[in-house]
Amino acid sequence: MTVRVLLVDDHELVRTGFRTILESEPGIEVVGEAGDGAAAIALAQSLQPDVICMDVQMPGMDGLEATRRIVETRDARAGAGVGVLVLTTFDRDDYLFAALDAGASGFLLKNASPEKLLEAVQVVARGDALLAPDVTRRVIERATVTRDDTHAPDPRLDDLTERETEVLRLLARGLSNAEIAAELWLGEATVKTHVSKVLLKLGLRDRVHAVVFAYENGVAVPGEAE
Length: 226
Known about the structure:
About 50% of the residues lie in helices and about 10% in strands. It has helices at about 10-20, 35-45, 65-75, 95-100, 115-125, 135-145, 160-170, 175-185, 190-200, 205-215; strands at about 5-10, 30-35, 50-55, 85-90, 105-110. The protein has a 5-stranded parallel β-sheet with strand order 2-1-3-4-5, with helices on both faces. The chain folds into 2 domains: about 5-130, Response regulator (Rossmann fold, 3-Layer(aba) Sandwich); about 150-215, Winged helix-like DNA-binding domain superfamily/Winged helix DNA-binding domain (Arc Repressor Mutant, subunit A, Orthogonal Bundle), CATH 1.10.10. Helix 6 (about 135-145) crosses helix 10 (about 205-215) and helix 7 (about 160-170) packs across helix 9. The protein is α/β, with parallel strands linked by helices.
């Protein structure tokens, strides 16, 4: 199955470079390009890509606002459709967390290797979140710093079965569905069902928010994701 990608960046040279890398991989097709957030929203609706590679700083509407609007539209359609991979030259926590809060499925620096870009697109296309170890660590640090140890865990956790709680704990370690399946000796389709139930029961948008939720509520503890 071909992964359809929309490139969004205000620099044509950058888009050309990304296109060259992505289209060197069989099974990936760049279906469109946009130079700003507003154009990205329009093309996302008309082209229905699987993955959007989104820049942050652009004239007019920036990539964070565009991501938020695209994800809101996607969620209104019961979660089906595009995943957003944010690409930026700025290794800044405010951009990272703003992108994740906007609903991005991944965050990658533009100086990443071509192999990392190809892997990231494939991960997001599968419906997984791109949680590289350094990103996971920073998410954990924010979650644990803001956690109030005197606050009782979210009552929605009581709705999870023992198996679903274990799946949530493994999600918090940044494991993919295939890795969780191997860890628990389950089929990958079964794990995918468990993940969907976890997100539904907890009212969470995606795996990234599941990681934050797990650490904020003590389901996972720092050190497990190392």
